Amino acid sequence: LAADRVREPLARERERAVDGHVELEVQEHAGGRRQVDRPRVVARAPGVARGARVAAEDLGAVGVDHLREVDGLKELWGTSIEHMSLITLILDPNVSDKDKVVDDIKAAVDRIVDLPDHVDPPVVTELESKNQPILEVALSGELPYIQLRKSAFELTQKLEAVPGVARVVKRGYFNQEIWIEADPLLLQQYHVSLAEINQTIAENNISVPGGLLKKDGHDIVIRTSEQVLGVTDISNIVIRKSYQGNDVKISDVATVRDAFEDQKMLYRTNGKRGINLQIIKKENIDTIHLVKTIR
User: Fold this and answer.
1) Between 57 and which of 80, 100, 188, 217 could a Cys-Cys bridge form, CB atoms 3.0 to 4.6 Å apart?
2) pLDDT at 280 over 70
3) Is pTM beyond 0.70 here?
4) Phi, psi torsion values for 180, nearest 5 degrees
5) Which one is predicted more confidently, 227 or 287?
6) How would you classify the pairing of strands 133-140 and 248-249?
7) pLDDT per residue over 136-189, tens digit each?
8) CA-to-CA distance for 35 and 29, rounded, in angstroms?
9) How does DSSP assign the chain, residue by residue?
10) Beta strand 218-226 pairing with 206-215
11) Can you give the pLDDT at residue 30?
12) How many CB atoms lie within 10 A of CB 31?
């Protein structure tokens, strides 16, 4: 668990990762009874194609120059990583009209017209303390990822059951997939196409509502359901039947295996692959008390 340190008058805690940008900020009143909120705005420009860090840094410098003209800012800094330039702005807590400052920031970003063609339009996001994690739990160890993922799922359920926790955001937690890798030679040998495999799977993985049946004053929902559940089910799906009993199954022409979605960012703790759980609290909940409860 990330340590929570209370300083006068605010506690700020930041983490940055080498292979990405991870920022955790905790802001608490010294007494622990009042949430102190300094409005924060992030301008993000993604999509620096093939451009190394230099391109992202140049892009960030352009954004910072345009945003310096905005009144009502207390802090402004830029961060550049591969394919991304991130500019963070903290509003002056004494500003009278926060919405006007945010509108001025958006207007300044909209005036940036000298962007390369391969850069996506900048995105301006207003960050509020109620949407920021108060704690981050890192799970890691010398065990298969599927076991680590199961532990993260179980811990997430326990954390979400704690009174005062709004939600838990999982980082490094990838969706499970089933991969079907067809062998070109076997496809040719059995005269099977990829289109046939796709159609066969679709026909064997359906869930269609069939209407309502009234019985004894109750409505009974009728549904036609034939859904594959895992690797074994998919492997045994028959693509083509034969009168001689030589049915062609998916396992005859392809390898079916469990996998996970493409992993564009990896999370590590103490050098080991991990999953991070970011805990978001409900509004008007005492941060310090909730942290102690979670621990």
Assistant:
1) 80
2) yes
3) no
4) -115, 110
5) 287
6) unpaired
7) 999 988 888 889 999 999 999 999 999 999 999 999 999 888 889 999 999 999
8) 6
9) -------SS--------TTS---------TTSSS-----EEEEEEE--TT--HHHHHHHHHHHHHHHTT-SSEEEEEEEEETTEEEEEEEE-TT-S-HHHHHHHHHHHHHT-----TTSPPPEEEEE-GGGSEEEEEEEE-SS-HHHHHHHHHHHHHHHHTSTTEEEEEEES-PPEEEEEEE-HHHHHHHT--HHHHHHHHHHTSEEEEEEEEEETTEEEEEEEEE---SHHHHHT-EEE--TTS-PEEHHHHEEEEEEE---S---EETTEEEEEEEEEEPTT--HHHHHHHH-
10) antiparallel
11) 33
12) 9
Tokens of 151: 């532990």
CB 237 within 8 A of CB 201: yes
pLDDT at 223: 59
Cis peptide before 9 (omega within 30 of 0): yes
Residues 6+ apart with CB under 8 A from 142: 272
The average pLDDT across 96-114 equals 84
For the chain, how long is the longest CA-to-CA vector?
A: 83
Residue 203 identity (one-letter amino acid): E
